[in-house]
Specification:
The chain is mainly β. It is about 5% helix and about 35% strand. Among the domains are: about 110 residues, Carboxypeptidase-like, regulatory domain (Immunoglobulin-like, Sandwich); about 120 residues, TonB-dependent receptor, plug domain (Ferric Hydroxamate Uptake Protein, Chain A, domain 1, Beta Complex); about 60 residues, no CATH class. The protein has four helices and 26 strands. The strands form seven sheets. Strands 1, 18, 19, 22, 25 and 26 form a six-stranded mixed sheet that branches. A hairpin with a 2-residue loop joins strand 25 and strand 26.
Length: about 425
């Protein structure tokens, strides 16, 4: 099973919870405010520009600024333009950048290079941003971003029994449900591109984004901002990549296999493990030849990640079909045959079942000879209330037992998580 999801969004669609805010004052050499100065903010990757003017107090403001690298220019007639280049904005950041204009011709420009991180003087938020390089370069078991949260001071991986798997029955790799600044693990708040991404019961991310899709994320411990009201624990704010004017992408494959593993010291054999994580992503300007050119205004980004895994558990019990069952003959377990709905006509009361319960043998469970065993064998029974016969008599799709879908960021992660013995033709998944 595979799925690819494309997403086209306007830059204004990103919530203020994930975007940055930029403001500052413009003055001349005497300290007097400069009214009506034109302030231009240009994204270096996309070419998207925004303009505003200073008010009567000489102050300008940009809201909902996407995380990225920018060039900020101030111009006013009678003054030399001033430009602040390579200014980097981060998720949920407030930046103050003041300018001092010098009298001169417009042909003369004063350029200031950004050399250090901007100091947050707008609020009392305490947190740390994990940027792209750390997300991509640090090793992760299972390509889940949550262990990276422990890089932030005040974050401790105090997993509970339920939250330790991320709310998943069959988790892949390591997952961390942390305590942030001593708060309960279920008190944290997860955001994905400004959208609430918190599973309300376990307190974990609903959609775990693909690692290669993450641009950066911020773990915020002290939250005195109104938009985060009602959150007792920390805030984990994830921002994913978007398309730019340049076409870019990545392809990956991560392999774990039995042939790479050491032998078990007791059995003298390696435990079977076949695991493949693979995928791709890519983005660029939205472009239709002779129809629409989206450079500097519209962009697209798409990704896919697939998971294939076979890892039987030691000492697990596996149901092996008989030779007749492999040929589609289930007369041994249902001598009376099946009706058109796939229900066994030989309905016997299950041993130990309370009055009113019957055993329904559904033929659809036996349709795939290599993956399913009929539900009315002597060792595996499905006991249902007789009043619900029509509900449980419908054929059950085979993929319901074999596949697990995980939407991940702007993609859908598809996984095969089924046990497999040494010979998949003769053995079957553990029930």
């Amino acid at each position: 099973m595979a799925a690819i999801v494309f997403l086209l969004v306007s830059s204004a669609a990103l919530s203020q919870q994930s975007a940055a805010n930029l403001n500052g004052a413009v003055r001349d050499l005497t300290g007097a405010v400069v009214q009506g100065a034109t302030v231009s903010l240009a994204n270096l990757a996309t070419g998207v520009k925004h303009e505003t003017t200073t008010n009567e107090s000489g102050v300008y403001t940009f809201t909902n600024v996407l995380p990225g690298d920018y060039s900020l220019t101030v111009s006013k007639e009678g003054f030399s333009p001033a430009t602040h280049q390579n200014m980097h904005t981060q998720v949920n950041q407030s930046i103050t950048q003041d300018f001092e204009l010098k009298p001169g011709a417009t042909a003369t420009e004063v350029i200031v290079q950004a050399t250090s991180a901007e100091l947050n003087t707008a609020n009392a938020s305490i947190g740390e941003v994990i940027e792209t390089k750390s997300v991509h370069d640090l090793p992760l078991n299972g390509r889940n971003f949550t262990p990276l949260m422990t890089l932030v001071p005040g974050v401790a991986p105090v997993n509970t029994g339920q939250s330790s798997t991320g709310g998943q029955t069959n988790p892949l790799g390591a997952f961390v449900a942390p305590s942030i600044n001593g708060q309960e693990v279920r008190s944290n708040y997860y955001l994905l591109d400004g959208i609430d991404n918190t599973e309300v019961f376990y307190g974990v991310p609903v959609i775990p984004p693909v690692i290669d899709d993450i641009q950066e994320f911020k773990v915020q411990g002290h939250n005195d901002e109104a938009q985060f009201g009602g959150v007792v624990g920390g805030i984990v704010n994830v921002v994913t990549k978007s398309g730019t004017n340049q076409i870019h992408g990545a392809v990956w494959e991560y392999v774990r296999n039995t042939i790479f593993n050491a032998n078990n010291p007791i059995s003298k054999l390696p435990q079977k493990l076949v695991q493949n994580q693979f995928g791709f992503n890519g983005g660029g300007p939205f472009y239709i030849p002779h129809v629409f050119d989206g450079r500097n205004k519209s962009f697209v980004f798409a990704s896919y990640e697939g998971v294939r895994r076979a890892s039987p558990q030691p000492n697990a019990f596996y149901m092996v079909p008989t030779a007749k069952q492999l040929l589609g003959d289930f007369s041994e377990i249902c001598p009376g045959g099946f009706d058109n709905a796939g229900v066994c006509l030989d309905r016997g009361v299950a041993p130990g079942a309370p009055p009113g319960f019957v055993c329904l043998c559904v033929r659809a469970w036996c349709a795939n000879k290599s993956d399913n065993l009929c539900g009315c064998s002597s060792t595996l029974r499905s006991v249902f209330n007789q009043s619900k016969k029509s509900e449980h008599s419908k054929p059950i799709p085979e993929q319901q037992h074999r596949w697990r879908d995980q939407p991940a960021g702007f993609s859908v992660r598809a996984g095969v998580l089924s046990g497999a013995a040494a010979d998949p033709k003769q053995q079957r998944p553990a029930i």
